[in-house]
């Protein structure tokens, strides 16, 4: 394998061109999904759960988990417009160039999960890393048991990948959407994601659950799963911290002795439960 | 071991300069170029030598239409008169920057920097002894000098140091008993390095709020610390400019502030606590080493009078 990844200096970004932009969410908390193609390099190998540092020169770099599965072409990043880098990213157009460093971080152990049922529990933009997982499962469907996708956002307008998820429902996949507050013509669950989870009562047997979303949603969902009989060893999450170098040097993203960029972002819950500092 | 009669540092410096090294020696503030030094005072410099390996600000890339790599700094440098604690601290920085993915900027500087330490004169803030160090510890040095009267005893520590010494005239072999040239020092400050279990118990103790009252989150402790290694990365210039890294501090609120406005260490006391836990617990877990060498700078220069030895003593209570 060449490319990008074998560049000696891990601080040097390589070139990627934006080839598609999809506006997922509009308004104050706008989210766009950028599809990018690595310009120099034949391949870009990664696993679900890994991320890249995306550079917009003049503004800086931010870490984004890769939003699509390695079984699909190119790379996608879903970006919530919120800070310096992401605001600038939202101004970019197809054909513009960004810098990429990565892929970095410990991925989801999807190979170890073969033969198991997969449950993803997502909230808001936290669906991004889960999408990489469920796409991977769908593309390797015979290798896994049942796939269940539980996902919610504040309103139907805040749901990321909404069309794609409704497509999956129509294809017969077990997808359970929710919104926090009632809306006319909303035909799915109304309530918080953990409430939907409690209602659905997923069976813990031979199942792995992956939770990602706002901290409060994660902690309540974890509690619901435990009530349903899930052990911490069956539950994964992916953490976020302010990151800079992305390669386990700069110290920023550390939670105690772990670097989120290098030892994570994917963690199994039993690896986190002994921490002194709240994650 | 060798012995040299006369001004060894001068001889060594001139030899190294003739071999294209830039030579630095301590003044009270930092290390300055040998040619500019009037004398070479004993004692600690206010800033440690980490800036020679990890500069406070360092340009990584330039950007415009696309990026341009900044050549790695391959200048040969020699630091002469380094304190043993600073030399030891470099071995700790190595564990961050050379293990795992290699940091090319650090690694290149490290390869090209010769560390010549010398026995130090501890001050009242020092507590290196707590970590098994003494004013005569050679770890992290290429060459170690013990100055005694008109004589300098010279210990080659690394093969690199040995090689340089082999080209210097006037060195005589000596079989002097080391204990006869080593001076014992009584340290007034100390800490218990085996404090990890106590730290685990005291994480949620009220003491952290009280202790942090005087802290102004200025980050002086971390900037002067020879083992603190955190950095930020910043872009300067909108259309064209450079990306650089700059020392950062876990004492700054921005250090962990996320763009969602979530901040895992929002409170000053959480950040102050982090400094002690990082040095005495987290790095022990991840690297097997306490990231403190007892140089005492964080005590000596803290505007709030915060004393790491007092705080760790309180943790043990």
How would you portray this structure in words?
The complex is a heterodimer of chains A (279) and B (317). Chain A is an alpha/beta fold and 279 residues long. In chain A, a hairpin with a 3-residue loop joins β3 and β4. The longest helix of chain A has 13 residues. Chain A is globular, with a radius of gyration of 18 Å. Chain B is 30% helix and 19% strand. With 317 residues, chain B is α+β, with helices and mostly antiparallel strands. The model of chain B has no long low-confidence stretch (mean pLDDT 95). In chain B, a hairpin with a 3-residue loop joins β4 and β5. Chain B contains eleven helices and twelve strands. The termini of chain B are far apart. At the A-B interface, β4 and β13 of A face β4, β11, β12 and α9 of B.
Keywords:
heterodimer, A: alpha/beta, seven-stranded mixed β-sheet, six-stranded antiparallel β-sheet, 15 strands, 20% helix, 30% strand, B: 317 residues, alpha+beta, four-stranded antiparallel β-sheet, 12 strands, 30% helix, 19% strand
